[in-house]
């Protein structure tokens, strides 16, 4: 339980475990989420046609058949959208032309290509298959380091390189420090792609208003509202003409609902072209393939240190992979962490090289942790490795290099002004309460039995409230001077007291479940001395009516430091005004007034008092009785900013965030040698997040962050084949821990060092475990199995191979079977080989294979096959296994014809379920009684079938190939006795079972 | 993610179904619980012209337990079989395997026969049918036939059911008296399709071992004179014969390794 | 035998939280869509539409099922319970809702209706559950906010075999 150590003031709501006001609505099923809001009659529903290709040129799009489908009112393509838009800008000059929908080219699987707007979602989806898109596939690139090579396929021709930005930062004197240090350790880490995939997906209703020339949009966009400017510019309207509203409830975001704004632009134009409001609720498959993910990253990190363990310098080169497009504020995550490039350690010198890379994958966006998991995975892994190389206890080494409690505020070399903390105390409490010594004893005991058991540690400075200027660090000093300064982080809050004296609060924090209504009510009720229940908090936003700033929204732990400060400030203003009014009636100076229990009383004489509601009412009912010059009514707006958030300096130093918490974790993990599974014996986590506003909410944030970080550590990854094929298309592929898998961390009760820079002393709490947990577990596994190169997620199959050596080879008999029906989907293509015996002559088989009519009868599901030339056939096949069937257009070419011995076949299948391109070779060898037909093939699969059907693809391909050859035998040798049965029968026969 | 259009037939008798299947063939699909089919419909991986709902046909919801084993009608839900006391007693392994099939919500609606008809290579119920040497009974307008498990499950999502046939029941024989049984599986999460599932029946040193999730359908082997000394080599040979495949959750090698390691562990437990 | 033709709407009626309701559905209309957009009971949420996440869980004839994996037409004549039916007639929380509230067992609240309906179906059995049983029962419901501890605690408060302090 957190916060028990901090003494909660009995008289105050802040610090108390106040139950959530949000629950009253949500637990009754009365929440109003995006898809619950009523829409205007005639509203159309959108469905997106998405690219099956990772990279292709769009040759043509024909929507005419789709437009004829029942209920379809408009079909919109990138070309249709172009005249109404300008490109969506990002934080630095670059020529990329991105408008949320493909123009000329597709660059990732799932990229929007066209939008059908129809009378309902079912019909909109029906029409998708009638849109005909001709693509010219291009080579794809998915690895960020390889993408920077000169010969890599380039995504954006107008940029000319996949490395769209490279910056080298030198803070302190890293070169000299490296030269002067006794030793160096270098590792390379690869951090995967993941996201926290909120339960509620994106939802948008957009309307164009021809009368005003403006757009009216409601969506579950989360901010930051700096992006509102990006949308308005893209839609070519003044900011005020893009009205954006948010619904009362949002079903989670964890960052994801930031980069939905390109869809807002696309749907706004769709609504304009369709002449009706258009609604779109993203479905889960869309969300997984094409909404937003955290950038994956490759980092080479090197530490320079002395024999006594003093770390003198770090040098790191990041290859940050942002997928196919940059969407504002990308590439922000890497820059958000820049000031903290030395984490919690007193390391005076650091060199950082940031490469921003484009690849053929889903574009990136915000994910809880925002750049931290990647950075801290590198730092905490290299520190663990340094300890190993020095033969030191890792925690001992970490402690040696920690920032000391008397050094705060501590200016880190890259610019972070770490406001406060007592890291030594947190570590001591954690070691003590978490039972580290006992855990070490368990490790020793396990190891004595030959078991694989390790202990891992991780620490992290936890930043909160981003400096809106940090992204400018991406620019050079000269570019920054030209553009003008960017800094600060504004939060706003409006508090009104109505004629009956009740209090309403409007804020700009667009929560997605964090309990902001509850917390703001606590703060305001405390300040005004009214019962908690008298404060109503509304956090819906409306950019035409409400106060907001570019920093508005819910991200990077903004709420606890900033939104609360704005609320406190606004409440103070209300209090001051009411004190002035009351002072006049009570004949006491305003400073003497105490606001408590719904009364305003003179401290010097508590009998002299007025009811809070009466004072509030006066401001409305009797403006004439107010002090001279005072405005009537009570409505105070606070715009709060932190002066500590200054612009990037000429030396590229940036105080990236305002308030910095601290997290320290350790864990004990056992690796099962036989299955590669991990058993987390104990996980201990400690957080100092300054003032705790509501322990119930704070614990929820810690546990929630831990759960998603556990997911990132063990289960979650967006997987792409090296050819750009996307594989994690469903919740059966992208795995999320459930109550059955989740474990409970031991939560440490430790110090709370309030931030001097926030009004309540609060710091963020929601991201700490995103930073610590993946690397803490990785360090434990490294310790358990003695391996340096650890990547997450720690899947059993991967860990198994780390722990176990080579596989036991096949015995002779089984090896002989291998010639038949081999299939391998470990690489980028599905490769197979095999052979079948046909009791016919090579000539007969050859004739059959070359005859389109015969082939039409042999190819599974072939509806038609036309000969375009002697070596070129086109047709339509309805293909699949079991109930899974799709209709595909087939294009088959024969090459290297060596009658009647061998032929090469290349071809493609294109359909609504996906596309495949493949090549194969068929070889005929005559023997006794017939001919052995051998084949080998490799097929690249893409689109729906690959992203949702991965588990079954090998078996399906094998079945289809088998069907083909059985049909070939039937056609080429119709008299031959059918063997009957398929692959499984043959396999079972080999196993000695039923024949 | 909405299904493509189809006609929906609410069948009242088996003849309704076989009649509709006879006239529609492959373009019709039978739906009972729909826990596999509905997801495929929503993703438009399958677009039948006609969906035939058999869940209201009387008489198909029976579980019969006799000397030979457990016979399960076409509309018996997985949860109903798991909770059936006599069936649990007759074939304890069935209930154990069922606890790994999906989740409460899917077991409440998903049927036993539906899982067999779907023929997912990693699914537990087909594994049980193969291990126990069970069968399914199919009905068409022409009549009925009973097909042995290994002849029924022919590949990935593929069975020997003809397009004009529906499953009316499945039969899970009792294991031989005195035999010991065991079940193991490894999955990424609870309720997920198994990476590898294993089950066995041991009688003295004779063993029947079934493996799911590795080949295109579950397979069973009968091994005689099994011992701790012979098993590793036998399991290695089996692993290589089945080969396995790579997917997002595991490698082919991992699948083979689980046959060797989990398999050994499970068999030793059963034979102990 | 009844055949519902593609594109045409037929009347579907069932009991929802004790009250007869009816509306019109095409053969392919999902029960989840029907409840939300035809009946207007939008407390049941949709989050994956392929039967994995559990957000759309409702109780049909006493059993928790996925409403995205059921056709509206299949609900004809059934008795269905949803989140809207949990509170008492005076609109006060029932025991599960109350436990969720007191335990901070929800954050965004999007998965919560599905989780409550799953637990509600267990409540019907009248038996007590161990923590592993509760965790197993909830393994078909994904929550992204809480990490599950508070949910499991709330469930155990009402359904658990442990003594509630």
UniProtKB/TrEMBL annotation, chain A:
Pfam families found in the cross-reference section: Ald_Xan_dh_C, COXG, MoCoBD_1, MoCoBD_2
Q: Which Gene3D superfamilies match?
A: 3.30.530.20, Aldehyde oxidase/xanthine dehydrogenase, a/b hammerhead, Aldehyde oxidase/xanthine dehydrogenase, molybdopterin binding domain
Write down the InterPro entries for this protein, in alphabetical order: Ald_Oxase/Xan_DH_a/b, Ald_Oxase/Xan_DH_a/b_sf, Ald_Oxase/xanthine_DH-like, AldOxase/xan_DH_MoCoBD1, AldOxase/xan_DH_MoCoBD2, AldOxase/xan_DH_Mopterin-bd_sf, CO_DH_gsu, START-like_dom_sf
Record domain Aldehyde oxidase/xanthine dehydrogenase a/b hammerhead: where: 28-139
What keyword terms does UniProt attach to this protein? Molybdenum, Oxidoreductase
Protein name per its UniProtKB record: Molybdopterin cofactor-binding domain-containing protein
From TrEMBL, chain B:
Per UniProt, residues of the FAD-binding PCMH-type domain are: 1-177
Listed PANTHER family: XANTHINE DEHYDROGENASE SUBUNIT C-RELATED (PTHR42659:SF2)
Name of the protein in question: FAD binding domain-containing protein
Q: Which Pfam families match?
A: CO_deh_flav_C, FAD_binding_5
Asked whether the keyword Oxidoreductase is assigned, the reply is yes
Keyword entries, A-Z: FAD, Flavoprotein, Oxidoreductase
User: Where does the source fall among the domains of life?
Assistant: Bacteria
- InterPro entries reported for this sequence: CO_DH_flav_C, CO_DH_flav_C_dom_sf, Diverse_Substr_Oxidored, FAD-bd_PCMH, FAD-bd_PCMH-like_sf, FAD-bd_PCMH_sub1, FAD-bd_PCMH_sub2, Mopterin_DH_FAD-bd
UniProtKB/TrEMBL annotation, chain C:
Coiled-coil-forming residues are none
On whether Methyltransferase is a keyword of this UniProt record, the answer is no
Every copy of the 2Fe-2S ferredoxin-type domain together lies at: 10-86
Note whether DNA-binding occurs among the keywords: no
Q: Which InterPro entries match?
A: 2Fe-2S-bd, 2Fe-2S-bd_dom_sf, 2Fe-2S_ferredoxin-like_sf, 2Fe-2S_ferredoxin-type, 2Fe2S_fd_BS, Beta-grasp_dom_sf, Diverse_Oxidoreductases
Q: Pfam families in the record, alphabetically? A: Fer2, Fer2_2
- Alphabetically ordered keywords of this record: 2Fe-2S, Iron, Iron-sulfur, Metal-binding, Oxidoreductase
For this protein, the record's Gene3D superfamilies field holds: 3.10.20.30, [2Fe-2S]-binding domain (1.10.150.120)
Q: Could you tell me the superkingdom of the organism this chain comes from?
A: Bacteria
- Protein name, per record: (2Fe-2S)-binding protein
Question: What species was this sequence derived from?
Answer: Tabrizicola soli
